[in-house]
Structures are given as C-alpha cells and as structure tokens.
Amino acid sequence: MRAFFFWEAKAGGLTLSHKCNPYAGLLARALEKWGISLELGDYAFGRNWLEANRKDYDVLHLNWPHHFYRRDDLETTVKAYAQFAENLTFARSLGYRIVWTMHNLYPHERPFPEVDRMGRLLVCRLAHVVIAHCNYAADLARRLFFRTEELHVIPHGNFIDVFPNEISRQDARKRLDIPEEAFVYLYFGNARVYKGIETLIQVFGAAAAADARLVLMMRPSAASVGYWDDLMALADRDERVRVFTSSFFPNEDFQVYLNAADVAVLPFSEVLTSGSAIAALSFGKPVVLPGLGCLPELIDETMGILYDAEDARGLEQALVEVRKRDLKAAGRAALERARSLDWDDIASRVAALYRGEGKG
User: Fold this and answer.
1) What is the pLDDT of residues 167-187, one digit of tens each?
2) How far is Cα 349 from Cα 360, in angstroms, rounded to an integer?
3) Closest-CA residue to 262 (of 179, 189, 191, 338)
4) Cβ distance 163 to 254 under 8 Å?
5) What are the b/e assignments for 284-319, b being 16+ CB within 10 Å?
6) Positive or negative CA dihedral for 34, 37, 40, 46?
7) Which residues contact 219 (CB under 8 A, 6 or more apart)?
8) Secondary structure E strands in 15-154
9) What is the pTM of this model?
10) What is the C-alpha to C-alpha distance for residues 300 and 340, in angstroms, rounded to an integer?
11) How far is residue 1 from each of residues 56, 127, 341, measured CA to CA in Å?
12) What are the start-end ranges of the H helices in 191-250?
C-alpha cells in the first residue's frame, strides 16, 4: 500500500535526515514493516494530480490543514480554502481513504481564525478517520468539530532512536561552560509566544536559588520577531540565564543540553500535544509541565511535576518543589514512559486504519 503524507510545507521530509520534526520519518520507517510506503503529498493538491495518482496511492494522510489554504491575505486565503474543499471532496469521490491526525487544536499563528475553524470542520466531515493523540484531544474533536465516528486515540511516539545519547553529564556541562554543582533547568524548542518562555525567565529570576542556572536552547521564529527581542532583553538581566540559539540544532546536539540539565521545563500557555515533552522523556529527563492539553495523560507525578496553569504561582512553586524530588527515580520513570510510546505499536494501529480495519 502507498500513502501520501502531507507534512511540513517547506522543509518537511519523511526520513530522519531531513531538517524537520522527526515524527514523520519515524512513522514512515515503522509503517514500512507493515507494507506501507509513505511519500510526501503535494500541497497544490489539484484535480489532475489526484486523478493521475489514484491508481498507485490509496491514502491521503493530512496533518496540518492550514498549509492547504493559508495565504498572505484574507481574500486569497478564502479562495484557497474553497479550492481545498473542492479538491478534498473530489479526492473522496475518487476513492482515496482520507486520514487526519489532529496534532493541535488550531495553528499556533491564526491571522484568519474563522477560516481555520472552517478547515477543521471540513476535514472532520470528509475524513474517513481522525486520529487524536490523547482522550482530551478526541473529546475536543467531538465537542468543537462534531466528529463522533471513526475517531481513534493513538499516542505520539517517542524520540529514543532519533537523538544520540552518549555524552556524560560532566562532559555536557563542560561543553556549555556550566558549573558541575549547579542545578540546571532547561527549556528547549522554538521561541514562540505560546511557549511561555518569557514567564519562565521572569519566574526563574524571582524564585530560583543562587546555584541554579536556566539554559535556553532556542530556535528563533520568523513569526515572533518582536517576541525574540523581548526574550533576549529579559535573559540579559540575569547572568544565571544562558541562551543558545540556532536556526537548526543537529540531532546530535540535543544530548548536550538535555544531559547537562537536571530537569526540563516547558511552561506552555497553551498546548495540545508536545513533541518537546516527549523528547525530554526520551532522554530520561524529569519534566515540569503545565496541566494542559494532552500533558496530564502523558506524565504523572512520578516523572516530574504538573502544575496548575491557572495558578499565578504554579510555575514558581514547581521550580522550587522539583528540587526536593528524587530526580534519579523520576528520570527512570520518564524513560519508561517514553519506551511505552512505541512506534511499532503505533504503526500497527495506523496501518489498520489505512486499510479500513477499524482498529485504533
């Protein structure tokens, strides 16, 4: 069986060597064992393309619907949405099996929110299968997008096989010039407003002990230029905050930052599924997370701390409390949780849905 997988619009690829989120490459590799070949779909998605490929491809697997219609202004966005709706309807009439994985509720940047809602409603109406990564997300699909049939919960897989993990804590700290005796909190990921990084810097400055360090491993976001400037200004005020930036961190670099850290802190202001949280667990790293979205189904108190995102002092208390925990035991629990997010099991369930076997 062959399937088109619509992934990241610009740099996306379906191997682990591509400079993009490795989720797609891991799924593609695991699906090969089930006789399924994934290939990148074309976001142009025209009728001629759909017709020409139908004899060789059975499935259209969507991930980020806004890539089909998001344009620079509302008028062209609406026109592109109308074309997408027409083409998706045509694809279904040709016999393609349409699958959507709902990674997030809506895109992180939403210049045209009503079109995004229309896009979700459209996909939920036309898709044969909708996949959510947790029960909370599936409930959102039911309540907000009226999807009740063929709605399956399949977790996001781990990243254990993606990142090398050989460097010792001591050597990692030498690489980053961090004192051996310091207690290190780590944030890693894109620098975007919903990530809550500015709040982390402020709370760390006010609440963290003198021996603490905050390491920020960040990729600047073109969508948040002003936000980036504000972050740099905040970080510069506290010499305990160390900032490391790159437009793309190679996979082998993650071990340096994660193994140098005592705990990963990801203070989202909004989130559904978090690949970063799963990456931290994949390194056996205890986590501090808000109790939002899928995160309460991902971790429990044995692996770190889930704090109340509505509590103004929730993050502050978590940064203090985590230092009292048995972090070695929490790290072991974190790694065990990551191992349970097994790609072979995930691929078997996705393969069944591709084939219309109704398992998920």
Assistant:
1) 999 999 999 999 999 999 999
2) 5
3) 179
4) yes
5) bbbbbbbebbbbeebbeeebbbbbebeeeebbbebb
6) negative
7) 189, 190, 191, 245, 246, 247, 248, 249
8) 37-40, 59-62, 97-102, 129-132, 151-153
9) 0.93
10) 14
11) 8, 18, 24
12) 197-207, 225-236
